[in-house]
Amino acid sequence: MLDEKTIQLVQSTAPVLKEHSAEIGKRFYSLLFSKAPDLYNLFNQTNQKRGIQQEALAYSVYAAGEHITNLDALAPVIRRITEKHRAIGVVAEQYPVVGETLLEAVKDVLGDSATDEILEAWGKAYGYIADAFISIEKELYEEAKNAPGGWEGFRSFTVEKKQKETNSVTSYYLKPTDGGPIASYEPGQYITLWAEVPGEQYKHIRHYSLSEAPGKGYYRVSVKREEGRGAAPNGIVSNYLASDLNVGDKLDFSAPAGDFTLDKSNAPVVLISGGIGVTPLISMLNAIVENGPDRQVTFIHAAANSNEHAFREHVKQLDAANNHVKSLIVYDSPTEADRHAQNYDKEGRIDLAFLQGAVSAKEEAQFYFCGPIPFMETVNNMLTEWRVPKDHIHYEAFNPIAILDEE
Hints:
This protein is α/β, with parallel strands linked by helices. It is built from 13 helices and 12 strands.
């Protein structure tokens, strides 16, 4: 346990770290990769170029310091991080160099105001937090390895089928190369790709939601080809998968992971997706239709238009065939053909009035949403304004800074 003096120092200086979070994060990764370049293999390098990963680190450090006496308050954040750590293969031996480098970055950025006493306190706090993470991750590794069909580390999968869903989204059907069974998963979870992209110095890690209900004997992931805009780079892995990967090729994945999972109650459920955020929610929808025929589900999807609307016809068929399924479509840039066919329910963006009109059982309903960060922030704000109970709000975010008000 931490002594009272250490706790006081950490809590009193946490706001200072928050104020300088961007500089500390940037300096940290510069130092870390100079010391341990192999760690490039564990980080999303596109997020590094965009500065996203740096912000995520600083947020985590500040939040942990602020809640050092009650890490249970950060349980959802810790769970999300440890699930991702297990998925990418973070091990206990990597924590010391991270802690050492973090303290160096704090000292470099804060200068003389980061006294030896303050750095010692944060060193103790980091060790305390790291022990908690390592303990949880050890359990997660054991669970993944010992589950029926489970495995340790990364396992080879063969692309059995490659199916174009839209101009920019492609689904990949994956079966284990060794022909053995595969681990089941909870609707909403993801598998993690460790990709060797030709011409790239390091491997690339990516999390991809499973876009089908479990129990099929294969995994399906549906990936949007990310095209850079302005200074933002193209998606290295998504473009490689779309352009260069063929049926019969092999990819390495770790076992299913993630804390964004469909609850097992029979309460009404509202699934709200934006763009490629549809993937985990399609898994949930399919699972509900297959296993919970009495459970009412409202499926709301927002996209630019029908050209960019993945799984449109599939959801339409489920709506028509199941009385307990209702689907609604929002296009912010409908085509002339969309307008002529009147094949959507609202033009523009999802707003609270539209959401209130779509959901009749707000008090009982469980809300799940996924999509781009601005989309999720908007949905979260709407649900908060509507006074939806916090424990009825669930979201997925692969962007590392997408942690929506966990306090």
